[in-house]
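Saturday, quiet lab. Running sequence design on the structure tokens for the scaffold JK sent over.
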């Protein structure tokens, strides 16, 4: 699925404000990602713990920050390592990013002994548009369902009604995202589908029919 959220290039005032709302602190910082051999995606707490034990360092819990410019900020619970005076991440990033934006949060805890222990996830709006709030509500329902299952780095094996509900919510999510893209995408900028064509000459006309 196409996702417009990316690692921010800089810490904008919007991001700063939302960091403060969420953690009481606004000091987000970039850390390098050195994906450790054997480190598993989605298991950052375990990866960080292994590295910290090896290097005699500490695990720092907090949030990894992704932004959809002018729309929303996504905070994904995350664990990094502090060792030899350096802070870094050892978990392979979703899109292979070599740097992530991180904000520590001492309020986050993790139970290493439980298979379903999962770090939290939180999305906060930048835009005041209703459609953005609807998207966030759908995503939080999805997270709630997925939280019942053990953490995996692959596809979740959903059972019973969950499979159907997740399918519906994901469809709904995609529609809301498309509407937001339609509303926010500068018409002369390159289309986000990656075609290299201008948005107005590529995906915009059929998006207008469906989401305008
Ligand atoms: Zn396109």
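Result came back. Writing it out in full:
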């Amino acid at each position: 699925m196409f996702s417009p959220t990316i690692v921010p290039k800089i810490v904008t005032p919007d991001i700063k404000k939302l960091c403060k709302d969420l953690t009481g602190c606004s000091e987000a910082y970039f850390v390098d990602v050195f994906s450790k051999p054997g480190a598993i995606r989605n298991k950052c707490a375990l990866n960080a713990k292994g590295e910290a034990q090896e290097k005699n360092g500490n695990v720092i819990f907090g949030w990894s920050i992704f932004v959809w410019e002018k729309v929303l900020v996504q905070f994904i619970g995350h664990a990094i390592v502090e060792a030899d005076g350096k802070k870094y991440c050892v978990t392979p990033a979703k899109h292979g990013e070599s740097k992530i934006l991180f904000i520590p949060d001492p309020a986050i805890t993790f139970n290493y002994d439980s298979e379903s222990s999962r770090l939290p996830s939180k999305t906060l709006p930048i835009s005041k548009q209703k459609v953005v709030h609807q998207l966030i509500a759908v995503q939080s329902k999805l997270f709630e369902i997925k939280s019942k299952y053990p953490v995996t780095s692959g596809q979740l094996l959903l059972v019973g009604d969950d499979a159907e509900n997740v399918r519906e919510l994901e469809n709904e999510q995609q529609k809301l995202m498309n509407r937001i893209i339609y509303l926010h995408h500068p018409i002369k900028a390159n289309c986000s589908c990656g075609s290299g064509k201008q948005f107005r000459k590529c995906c915009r006309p059929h998006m207008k029919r469906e989401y305008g």
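Notes for JK: Helices lie at 13-23, 44-55, 130-146, 161-184, 204-211. Residues 191, 193, 195, 202-203 surround zinc ion (CB under 6 Å). Ask whether to fix the surface positions before the next round.
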